[in-house]
Amino acid sequence: MGNTHCSYASVGSSSSTSCVSYPMDSIKLSTGVIVGIVIGCVAAGVLMNILITNSLFMFRRIVSLYQNLYITSSISSSSLSSREIYSRMKQLMDSKEYKKTLDFFDQQSHSCTDFEINLALKACISLNEYQCGMNIQKTLSQNSLNNPYIQATLIQFYSLISNNMPTKVLDLFDEMNIEPNQAILAVLFSACSRVGNDRAMKIGRKLLNQMPKNFLNDNKLLTSAINMLMRFGDEKADSVKDAQKIFKLIDKPDAITYTAMINSFGLNRMDSEAVDLYRKMPNYLQDEVSSVCVLNACSHSDLLNEAHSIFHEVSHKTKKIITAMIDCLSRLFLFDEA
């Protein structure tokens, strides 16, 4: 079956009629096409909506990134004065916020002077940030390396951060243009005792002879000097005498000073002197370390009676004290008693 479409035409006074038949399938096909087009349009609209949504998201993301970049750029480009940078870093250091000090220094390093660099190195010392300190040192100009305050801080850095650089500490000292303070002197004495060669002994003795008299009230400094002198292998007699003179200058020796002198006597085979000093040491200052040092001195010189007496007088016998006594007995081949 099909539908018939008739058309009428009039020419002049005559008229004619023509009819054309269309099969139903062609109409159905046209409807399918139309439906397909509609569906396609709908799908295209959904797709367009997705694309628009994604585009808006991406646009917002780009704008956000740009704003962040602009803000960061504005902060970094807003050049703070050296005074402002120093003030902020000093504030952070005083608050013991050493990590924040270094973070701020990194942000402003392009505008930092020697004052701020010095603070950054001190923050590295406080944090034991060895690598960070080394990185800062590598970027220093020759003028900064010649700055006496930075040199002094670098000496502390090399000594406190790494015990493997005593020679570097002495090298820096040779380049210093200022008189070392008490903290620097203690570091230098320690470096000299660890190096222990002729150069170190010469530097150590020179520092000791030139030490200001007002420094003689610093127990820690004098203890460091005693340790240095007693570790100098050569000129042993003179070193021991000098160490004893320094010890006598101390008004009120503390436990650390007593122990340093007792240990120094022991290292130099002056074991009777070590025992005598231990006996003079106030009981409330005697501790595990001093007891171990004097027992070790006894074991070196076969002072068995003194070792027995000291060991029995110790009220709180720790594992280390017992071990020191066993070592003393073993050296005398008293294995059964040990």
Automatic annotation (TrEMBL):
A Pfam family recorded for this sequence: PPR
Keywords on record: Membrane, Transmembrane, Transmembrane helix
Species for this entry: Rotaria magnacalcarata
Membrane-crossing residue ranges in chain numbering: 32-52
UniProt protein name: Uncharacterized protein
Gene Ontology terms describing biological process: RNA modification
Superkingdom field: Eukaryota
GO molecular function: RNA binding
Gene3D superfamilies referenced in this protein's UniProt entry, alphabetically: Tetratricopeptide repeat domain
